[in-house]
Structure formats: structure tokens, C-alpha cells
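Example (one chain per record):
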Amino acid sequence: MAHSFKEIFNKIKNNRFNKILVIALRIIVGAVFIFSGFVKAIDVMGSVYKFQEYIAVLNLTNLAGSELVLAFAISIAELVLGVLMITGCLRRTTPLLMLALMAVMLPLTYFIASTGAVHDCGCFGDAVKLTNWQTFWKNVALTIALIYLACFNRSVPCIYGPIIQWVVILLTVLVGANVAFTGYNIQPLIDFRPYSVGSHIGAQLQPLNETDFVFVYEKDGKQQEFGIDSVPDEEDGWTFIERKKVTPDLSPAKKAELNAFTVYDNGTDVTDEVLDSTQNQLLVLMPDLPRVNHAYAFTLNDINIACEKQNVKLSCITSASEHEVQQWANLTQPDYPIYGGDDSEIKMLARGNPAVVYVEQGVVKWKRTFSSFPAKKLIKDGTPVAKLSNDFDPQSKLWSSLWPYMLLMIVLLFVNRIYPVVNYITNKIKSLSNKNIENKNTDKNTESFTI
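Predicted structure:
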């Protein structure tokens, strides 16, 4: 029986269709892992917030405080595993490592999907939003593919040699870490969130109604809902059934889509005042005020004075409680106003605690963490606020990281193929040379026999 199973396994392994399937699965699985790891590395703080949510829901208190390490480790690990899978490196180990990861993620995503404990898994960050059940079935499909690859991945060779494979791992780790650290220290190199640079911000731009109504009419036995601006004419055969009160989705993500960042002053909505589209604004965001370094307070006061000279209004927005705000005010004596905001919206607008966002006439122009903010240029040199982020171009920074990586991967492939190609050509020449010698000897023997 064992002998028969081995024969069947080898028959499948050597089958041409199996090799095509292995290559296809490598590309699909590898691409999913690369994309998942890349978007997590782009926005490490987004992953930190998601891990904090997981830890709270699952009551994993032992992991509290390790969210940043987990965010870096998992994003880079997924990126590396994806590259290894597509290139065929570590053919035996890579599928097993991926299966080990899925052994954790599969039951976790099933729990989330069945309980609804977390709104979304965050597997693709803010780039692609999947429902919890879509995430679970995606993981089921990946697990099935990985089981097949664990069995037959070695039937197709790697495009790199054994020594080169470790160089591939090192290069991928370096580029992933570079992208992740840049996103963490300054801002994500690609902004998948609603409040991206160039977007409008402020509730006055597109106000939301707290409630709305739909009108239900019936015609030919079928009921249909209409908005107040599209109510049908009863002369056309429509019969009024009922009016329904509808509460729109006012979640932070939905409000962000509608450019509805809201600012409060002691519970009163003052968004129209604070985010006045006729003014230029420098917003200092402090989602976690108690953890903000008090040493920043003196710099902030100096920044406020410099902004006033340029007719730029500085405002601080935090999700802290009134007591925490009062403590901060007593310790730092701020010369700028401090307003309240929703924690999720603040974190969605910019990453960092604190973070700085420049808004010019209602349009987001740039954003960055306070630690990377060139305060000296503003305070001492009087550099215009609009130009303070000219040293950071996310798109250029991203491509300056990716192009060398891709070029080196191609060079490695070329170098790795030199020896086999040279060896093949040498063997071919030797073979032709030996064949010529054999032909000459044969001709001599034929001449001797004729004589």
C-alpha cells in the first residue's frame, strides 16, 4: 500500500499539469502574502491599532505593549514569505512556515467572523476592506493551496541558487524594514485612508444629516424605496405604503469618506469655526495626550508664535478627556486652543502622537509626525509653513526604495544564471569536439579497412 501511494505521489509529482499548477499556486499565494505584508509595512501604526483591538477583544494582556514589535515582525515576515514563494526559494520550508501562520490565522478569523468581535480583520490594512467572512474563506483557500504546495512545491526548481536565496531574504527584509520605518517615523508612503493629501476636510464642506427618510411605494405587487427627491407620481400607478426613518452610517470611516472630520469644544460641535476653509491651518493631533512628551510643549508655543506671523492658525485636537486636557494645560501653559475629536478620526487623519497636518483653505497639503517636523526651519528661519514638508516626497521615497531592490533581484538572477549557462555552453562545445574526434577516428578506420 505504501509502495502504491509512493508511486501515485511520484506520478503526480512528475506530471506536467502538476508543475503548471505548482507555478500558478506559487504566484497566487505569493502575491497575496506580498500584498498583505506590503500594505502592513506601509502603515505600521495602522497595524498597531488593529493589534491593540485584537488584544483587547481576546483579553491577551500578556501581549499588551508588544503591538509595535508584532506589527513590524508580521508585515516583514509576510513580505519575505511571499517573495520566497513566488521565486521558489526554500521550497520545503516556505510552505510549512506559511501553514504555521495560517494555523493561527484560520481559527482566529473564524472566531472573528462568527462573533463579530472585531469590525474588520485588517489583513490588507486600509488598502482593501474585506468582510470578516470573506477574510475567513480567503484563508481557507490559502490553506488548501499551501497544503498542496507543501506536498509538491519541490517538483519545480527555484529560479535562484542556494547561496543566492539567502541574499534574496536579506534584501527583502531590508526593503520591508525601510518602508516600515519611514511610515512609522514620518508618514505612510502610500495613504490608503480617506483623509489623504489633496482631499478636503471639514464638516461644512458636505454636512451629514443625523437622520433621513425613505418612502415606500408599491406598483404591480412590488414595493420600492424612494428618497424625498425621487418620490414617484401616484398617477403612474404607484401606491404609498409607508415612510421609514433611516439613520445613516456615521462610523468614523464613513464620516471620513464624506469629509466630515468633526471638532468639539466642551462637547459643542465647532468644526465650522476651527476648520474654516478660508483660513490656513496647522493642526497638531494628539490622540493619546497623556503619552505626549511634555518637552514638546515649549516648541509648540514657539511654533504657534511663528504661525501667527504667517497668518496660519494653530489648533490642537485630541481625544483625551477634559481632565487629561486640563492636566496638560496646567503643566504646559499652551498659547494655542485645544479641541476634542473622535479618536478613530484623529488616527485616520494622520499617524503619530503627536502628528502635524497642514490644511490650506480646507485642503490637506501635507502631514507628518511631530518628531520629524522641521520646527527649527519654521521658528528660526521663518520658512513658510506650506514648504516645511518639501524634504519628504512619499512617492519618490517609495520608488527610491523599490527600484534598487528590483534591480538587484534581476542582477542576482543574471549572476546566478551565468554559471549554468557557461557550464552548458562548455559542455556543448566539449560534446561537439568529442563528436568531431569520433568522426575523424571513424573515417580513419574506414580508410584502413578499405586499403
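Caption: Residues 394-450 form the longest helix (57 residues).
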